[in-house]
Design brief:
single chain; 52% helix; 8 helices
Length: 155
């Protein structure tokens, strides 16, 4: 569930582990990450995929008080991530030789959003980065977007 929610919102592991039922707006399909749980110490609201919303709704029913991931042991998250990765036959290293970790889910979400939308500002808001950081991480995935933007000028 933790990995699927990560894919469905791009949040950091600690941010997801700290979600409570009160943080989820089921009607709007949004997770509200409280300032005290984010790396940047600023609150942010992130739209959820249908799959992530379904998981969080079910967890809110199971865990109406406290963390929605009260059953997740933070020290075992990487271990379980590695087990799942191995079972899926996925390499231990990513494409640039770094070990895969839960953080890899977050960077994958950022990459998908960059490739599909080209909207660095929206990516920065969803991931909780500054636009400069988002551009540095995902800008190389936008060459087609730059061509499309320049094609709007007819000189």
């Amino acid at each position: 569930d933790l990995c699927r929610v990560g894919i469905g919102c791009g949040a950091r592991k600690a941010e997801i582990l700290n979600l409570t039922a009160e943080d989820i707006d089921l009607a709007e399909g949004v997770a509200h990450f409280r300032a005290e749980t984010t790396k940047t110490a600023t609150m942010r609201s992130v739209p959820l995929t249908r799959g992530a919303l379904e998981i969080l709704k079910e967890r809110a029913e199971r865990f109406p008080e406290g963390s929605l991931f009260a059953d997740a042991q933070p020290t075992l998250v990487q271990y379980r991530f590695d087990q799942t990765r191995e079972a899926a036959g996925i390499s231990k290293l990513n494409g640039i030789g770094r070990p895969l970790s839960f953080r890899s889910i977050r960077t994958t979400v950022g990459s998908w959003l960059a490739q599909r939308t080209g909207d660095i500002y929206a990516i920065s808001k969803i991931l909780g980065n500054s636009p400069d950081v988002a551009a540095a991480h995902y800008g190389h995935l936008l060459p087609r977007k730059l061509v499309d933007v320049m094609s709007t000028i007819d000189v």
